[in-house]
Amino acid sequence: MSATPVRFNSLDELHLEGELDLPGEASAAVVLCHPHPKMGGTMTAPLLLALRDDLVERGWAVLRFNFRGIGNSEGVSSTGELETEDAAGALDLMRERRPDLPLAIAGWSFGGAVAVRVAAHDEAVVACAAIAPAVRAKPGVTDGLPPPESLGMGPPLLIVCGANDRVVEPADCRRWAGAVTAASYREISGANHFFWARYPKLCGTVGDFLDQALDPQR
Question: Which contiguous run of DSSP H or E holds residue 112?
């Protein structure tokens, strides 16, 4: 699959790089946020590429991008707070390119927490999917997520974890999601944090959730 390279600005005016896949008959658009920058996470993470392939086949326009300080994106990585400026800039780019399409956001691990934070403050986002999001803060690594009651989550939210995850505790995600009215929680048996050998199940779970957010009757 051939993606189109794009450049755009974060909300604080850093120049970031991304790749856009735009199917001919796109019915919606989604921004994907990659895992932890300091642990090798980039927009070309195999899990994100698998998710991209599935979503494009479903008719979603997909924008992946590198957070600040990664690849050819300007700036220096932070523990998540500044990366929300990057994700918000990516959403603005999709709105500019395809203002006619409903817009969602998704992310994995570190990127999952960033996606949730951004979706909670963007009234135009129709859905958010967080794959094994970093719920707990870890000093110098991730800001995690704020308490559910302080977030004010509006759009439908899916949190999906692997039952055998040893990086992000599924129990933490389950408890956090249980306190958010708009959230649903799914757990994939036999899957770890990287979802090796479970890509089809993961992609199906996320894709079905996003499709249903567009058409609740599905």
Answer: helix 110-119
Q: What is the CA radius of gyration of the chain?
A: 15
Query: In what helix (H) or strand (E) does residue 90 lie, and over which residues does it extend?
Result: helix 83-97
**β-strands 15-21, 60-65: how paired?**
antiparallel
Q: Which residues of 65-90 are buried (b: 16+ CB within 10 A; e: fewer)?
A: bbbbbbeebebebbbbebbbbbbbbb
Give this prediction's pTM: 0.96
Q: Is 63 helix (H, G, I), strand (E, B) or coil?
A: strand
Angstrom distance (rounded) from CA 195 to CA 115: 19
d(CA 42, CA 35): 7
Please identify which residue in the block is written with the tokens 């604080």: 12
Amino acid sitting at position 4: T
Do 172 and 132 touch, CB atoms closer than 8 A? Answer: no
- Residue 20's SS3 state is strand
Strands 103-108 and 4-9: unpaired
Number of neighbouring beta carbons within 10 Å of residue 168: 23
Q: Is 149 exposed, middle or buried (0-12, 13-18, 19+ CB in 10 A)?
A: exposed
User: pLDDT tens for residues 19-62?
Assistant: 999 998 999 999 999 999 877 899 999 999 999 999 999 999 99
- For residue 142, the 8-state DSSP code is B
Specify the 3-state DSSP secondary structure of 86.
Answer: helix
Domains of the chain and CATH, by start: 4-214 (3.40.50.1820)
- 21 strand-pairing partners: 62
